[in-house]
Amino acid sequence: xxxxxxxxxxxxxxxxxxxxxxxxxxxxxxxxxxxxxxxxxxxxxxxxxxxxxxxxxxxxxxxx
Length: 64
Description:
The protein has 64 residues and is an alpha+beta fold. 14% of the residues lie in helices and 12% in strands. The chain contains one helix and two strands. A two-stranded antiparallel sheet has the order 1-2. Strand 1 and strand 2 form a beta hairpin.
């Protein structure tokens, strides 16, 4: 599985090396949406696809 580059977590600063890649199990899920989740528990914005979830995580306004 590909591991797209992720911006560091804006809350704990993790470099997101623990992100498993583009597999459903690597994302927080609620109903039909995906979100990138950091080991610290921070969850990114909901998106309809895994690719969109990664893009939303990288585009967050609350980056350090």
